[in-house]
């Protein structure tokens, strides 16, 4: 990897950490009139969709730098570590999320597509290259 690639990888990991914090903080959002409009108080976990879209993008960008597991997966690993840290007992031992279906959906929506993207990148890197002349 070139020296500039390391800077890009650090920025991708920092993005993943920030994304995990934002995903966790806004996970319990509800339509109850406090932050979102009052529409009956039902849950609105938009961060699940955000994680589903953005974490694979971070992993794909890292895998393009160097298609090996630890480089390509580093943003995804950082995202999962921060989500689990905040879910199990974050800063000061305080729980940042409630133990319900939303945290499981968030973990699945962020981790599974990222794993698929990483596997795809690693598979393409290891695929045999066709030879000229057959």
Q: Structural class of the secondary structure composition? A: mainly alpha
Beta-strand fraction estimate: 5-15%
Spatially, the strands of the biggest sheet line up as 1-2
**DSSP summary, beta strand count:** 2
Helix percentage range: 55-70%
Alpha carbon gyration radius: 18 Å
- What integer is the average pLDDT? 84
Shape: elongated
- Summarize the helix and strand pattern as letters: HEEHHHH
Q: DSSP helix count?
A: 5
Major beta-sheet overview = 2 strands, antiparallel
In whole angstroms, the N-to-C terminal distance is 32 Å
* Low-confidence blocks of residues: none
What is the secondary structure topology, with strand pairs?
Layout: H1 3-25, E1 30-32, E2 38-43, H2 46-65, H3 69-72, H4 74-89, H5 101-126
Task: Characterise the protein shown here.
- The chain has 134 residues and is mainly alpha-helical.
- It has a domain at 34-125.
- It is 66% helix and 7% strand.
- The chain has five helices and two strands, in the order H-E-E-H-H-H-H.
- The chain has helices spanning 3-25, 46-65, 69-72, 74-89, 101-126; strands at 30-32, 38-43.
- A two-stranded antiparallel sheet has the order 1-2.
- A hairpin with a 5-residue loop joins strand 1 (30-32) and strand 2 (38-43).
- Helix 1 packs antiparallel against helix 2 (46-65), helix 2 runs antiparallel to helix 4 and helix 4 (74-89) packs antiparallel against helix 5.
- The two termini are 32 Å apart.
- 25% of the residues are buried.
- The mean pLDDT is 84.
């Amino acid at each position: 990897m070139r020296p500039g690639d390391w800077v890009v990888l650090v920025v991708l990991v920092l993005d993943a950490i920030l994304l995990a914090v934002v995903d966790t903080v806004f996970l319990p959002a509800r339509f109850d009139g406090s932050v979102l409009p009052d529409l009956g108080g039902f849950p609105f976990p938009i961060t699940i969709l955000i994680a589903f879209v953005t974490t694979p993008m971070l992993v794909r960008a890292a895998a393009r730098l160097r298609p090996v597991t630890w480089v390509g997966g580093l943003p995804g690993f950082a995202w999962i570590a921060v989500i689990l840290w905040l879910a199990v007992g974050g800063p000061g031992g305080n729980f940042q999320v409630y133990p319900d279906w939303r945290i499981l959906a968030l973990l699945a929506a962020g981790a599974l597509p990222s794993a698929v993207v990483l596997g795809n990148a690693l598979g393409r890197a290891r695929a045999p290259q066709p030879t000229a002349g057959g």
